[in-house]
Every structure is written in C-alpha cells, then in structure tokens.
Amino acid sequence: MLNEVRGILAYRFTEPVVWLLAKRSLNPIVITWIGFLLNAGAGILIINGHLFIAGIVVLIGGYADTIDGALARRTNQVTKFGAILDSTFDRLSEAILLLGLLVLYVSEQAETGIILVSVVLVNSLMVSYIRARAEASGLECRIGLFTRVERVIILVLGLLLSQIENVLYIALGIIAVFSLITVIQRLLYVWKQTQNE
User: Fold this and answer.
1) 2-194: what fold?
2) For residue 157, which of 20, 58, 139, 191 sits 20 to 30 Å off, Cα-Cα?
3) What is the rounded CA–CA span in Å between residue 122 and residue 80?
C-alpha cells in the first residue's frame, strides 16, 4: 500500500515536467547526470556550512532523480545501463551528501553529528544493498518504511531548518532509526520469501 501511495504521489509531482521534457526529446541520462551534479554541488555547499542553500539544491537534485526514470519510460528509452547508472548515482549522491555532513561535523568537532551521520550512512546503504542483493537473487524487495525518497525529504527539511538548534540532529536521528527499521523489514520480507524454497 505504501508503495502505491509513493507511486501516485510521484506521478502527480513529475507528470507535468515529464510531459514537457518528452516533447523535447531529451535523453533521460542527461537528467540523471544533472541530478547527480546538483547533489555533488550540495555536498560542497554542506562542507562549507551553507546548509540552507544546500537544502534547496538537494531538493532540486532529488526532483531530477525522480524524473529520469519516468522520462525513460514515457519516451521508451529504458535501458539496463540507464537503470544501473541511475541507481549508482542515487547511491553516490546520498553518500556525497552524508560525507559532506561528516566533514562539516569533523571540522566542528561535533561528536554527536559524527556518530549520527556515520549510523545514517551505514543504514542507508544497507537499505539499498538488501534490495539490490535480493533482486539479484530473483526475489522481490520493494517494500520498506523509509526508502531513499523519505530519507531525502527528511534530510532536506533538516538542512532547510538547520538554523533551528538541533533540528539537523533530529532529522539525522529520524533517518537513522527508520532506516534501521527498513533494513529489518526488508530482511524479514526476503526471509519469508525464501522459506517456500
């Protein structure tokens, strides 16, 4: 049910832009690169302490990340390489943003921030890894309370509201906890599928 809600919301937010881009015959891989470069730029902004601006850039980059796949499907340009590139850049983008925060917190000697970012980095990568490994084994694994979309939304909110004391810590804490829950959800879901083998 949660996946259906995500799909409906994604369609509502992306369809008008996808429709316009499809008319211009734009290659979806270009959008994938734009999203990645925006997130890389946001990582640099984070390192330099420009958290609010970084939040805006991440929001735009995240939107680009939701458009490329939809554009590929709309224009019949879906390829295995495009899907792999998109997935790879999604992981890299998230890692760059979190490493940017890690560098910032190390420079500020903020131990709480360092710990939170480290936990988020591991949990986020595990959420994605479990799905990738399950699907490589022929299992379905699209479930989960906190997918990349939710993680990006909470991170963006944390960055945009970072001037309020401890808000970014709270955002990272939410991502850490709910990502761990998602890891457990996915492992249990995959385990149940393997019990029938």
Assistant:
1) Four Helix Bundle (Hemerythrin (Met), subunit A) (1.20.120)
2) 20
3) 27
